[in-house]
């Protein structure tokens, strides 16, 4: 065993010395490997970077998780509780009828907005940032960026809400002082809108329907009917992008008309599949050609050094140990090719990312190769190089010690 290890060490040293002696040939082989591997690394980096960036952008936009209720319906509390218990649901809050969910707003300086859409909200609303305070009770609301800009107000200021109704053939007006708890980012919601608590939204609906609403200081009107509350719509968000299609299909199967941004999600998946197919196609052809080229070069090298290798056999080097000569050289050439390929990749990736830097955040990249993917690529390259050396290994195994004497 010790003798075999000693012989293997000697063969490895000879193989390395031979590579250095024929450095021009070795460099050409390394460049050939780099010429195949570098474009594959860039292509895979583009695939990972583009898909990961698009996925991250979609995940960072809560609107992609939304399942939109298209028509008013009749939803009871029990059904809502079962829906909220669904592991695919991230956020759900019921809403009133569309026509009842509007409000006129006026700022202290006289600026105003008519028919502002009201949307229910609650703790955990994905549209609210970490620093945005969710409105509570009957005296607060949160405004969209456009609505706040039009009114000229910011968080902490107050606005007046105005609601009209006709009761007993008389036009009545309800005025509410509402504190702005937060102004949402422009990117999460467009248009004029306001987010309020569900109790306030229900109270406004009751007011419009002609009921007395003591919590808003309205005594005029019919007494509210008793019974379980039912809702017309729902603000619903899935827990993840992957859960959106399944949750939407489940609701459609129950007869609800809903819509999602599934086309955008499918677009990212299609880009991933297309780039994966393109990568496999190019990688398959490039790797096959590289393996055959390297294998043929190593076989030719063995044939040129046949007498020298036979002499090693004659001095006692085992045939199986000597077979490691081309395999070690293949591994060495592959290591040099990998180093050159990664150097080319990093230069190309930096140039690509700099070109698109203006359209990306600091954490986003167009071309990015993860460390695990880089290690895998290096390992596969070394494995394929050693596999290519099998062509030369078979030639070594056929060498007889006497060949060195006959050629002399």
Automatic annotation (TrEMBL):
Q: How does it sit in the membrane?
A: Multi-pass membrane protein
Source domain of life is Bacteria
Give the record's keywords alphabetically: Cell membrane, Membrane, Transmembrane, Transmembrane helix
**Entry annotated with the keyword Signal:** no
Residue ranges annotated for the ABC3 transporter permease C-terminal domain, each copy included = 282-401
**Family from the record:** Belongs to the ABC-4 integral membrane protein family. LolC/E subfamily.
Q: What is this protein called?
A: ABC3 transporter permease C-terminal domain-containing protein
